[in-house]
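Protocol check, entry for the methods section draft. Step 1: assemble the input record (protein sequence plus ligand SMILES). Step 2: submit for complex structure prediction. Step 3: store the structure tokens unaltered in the notebook. Ligand used here: adenosine-5'-diphosphate. Step 1 record:
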Amino acid sequence: MTMQNTVMVVDDEVMVTAALRSFLELETSYRVLGYTSARAALDALQTESVDVIVADFMMPEMDGITFLKAARDSRPLTSRVLLTGYADKENAIRAINDAGLYYYLEKPWNNDHLRLVIRNGIERSSLFNELDSRVAALESAHMELHGVRRRLLQAFR
Amino acid sequence: MRSDAPADAGFDDPLADRVNEARLATLGLLVAGLVHEINTPLGAINSNHDVLRRALGKLQDILADEVVEPHELDEVRRIVRAVDGILRVNDLAVERMRGLVSNLRNFGRIDGSGTDMADLHEGIDSTLAILAHELRPISVVKEFGELPRVPCRPQQVNQVFMNLLMNARQATPDGGSITIRTARLGDAVQVQISDTGAGIPSGQLGRIFEPGFTTRDGRIGMGLGLAICRQIVDRHGGRLHAASEPGRGATFTLHLPLVQPPRIEETVQRSPDRTEASHDEANSDTR
Ligand SMILES: Nc1ncnc2c1ncn2[C@@H]1O[C@H](COP(=O)(O)OP(=O)(O)O)[C@@H](O)[C@H]1O
Ligand SMILES: [Mg+2]
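Step 3, stored output:
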């Protein structure tokens, strides 16, 4: 039994969050968190652990890239996907590298493509998580060795 | 095409050319916004349509083997829930598109560009709806008073609202606000559009209504928005003024008379006579 993966969907239009939710709930077993406010979504990220975030570009409170950058600060290992309207494409692409995004999708999106991007995003996040815990393990092993070495040196002084 | 291009035989009035350029530039912005507005409901319906097809496929699979197992009932309930949500979203999406179409129709007054007794609030609202995409990062405050219907050419008056709102938007950084106030003042109505943008330096206040005056980098058709507004308002027997506190914003005040002027002339396009006449008033803008 694996842990249920969580996808966060953020768009100021409830139409979009609801459509994405309908699709993901019908076709996948992911837990779906939908937000129409970027601020509320950032608050939720303080407590929720999320594997993939899909966010709209054009939102009133803050644009999708600002939101996804802020999301990186609290959840650096989460894969972040930008959903853009055709008209925003150029701006969006320019900002994608800057914000270290995983992917961008154009509206209207294709559901199969969306599912693939989310699935790969989840895999990517879990690899990062694994890498992160391995690195942490290595670091603590290193610290431990360091301690052992120091104690040995003291013993033989 | 710039106005300094060699004049064609058929186009002996450079101002008329540039008025059309200005209209095209506005139209270009408008279309970009509309594409975006339509894309949201379209995206939702497009996805929902696909999900409905998938849901139907799942139901057909369940029904294919004649007997519905108890555990399959849970799946059926899940599908029904999804379909229910989809229908509700589609209602919203269809409603949104219906609204867009009706606003566009209202804005353009396809039913005629003639003189009418117009509800200015309706004109402002449909202009705001059309600019919804442009204005999203700005908060728009409406302080509408009681207004009687106004004798005017609604299509032209909407063009004035459009230009003033676009200028306000362009001057105002994201997160700023635009306030629209309306009131009746005796036998005239007043519409005031204020923004919290950059404002207008006092040295420029007297010049902004001149055709071709612009502080934007030389894109086609620029610098005519306010000249066109002035001309339209003049022809309605009304007045248009600007006031500004540089750094804190600008306010444009429009007065239209409630008494039908003797004749509201043809559109700017059809009789492109010079706007010099309105220059004289420019000084009165430094109030
Ligand atoms: N709301 C406003 N706030 C600040 N400046 C404004 C505003 N409206 C107009 N202006 C100034 O007036 C100039 C002329 O406006 P307009 O005739 O609409 O032409 P354009 O918008 O193409 O420059 C603008 O370039 C700008 O400098
Ligand atoms: Mg303008």
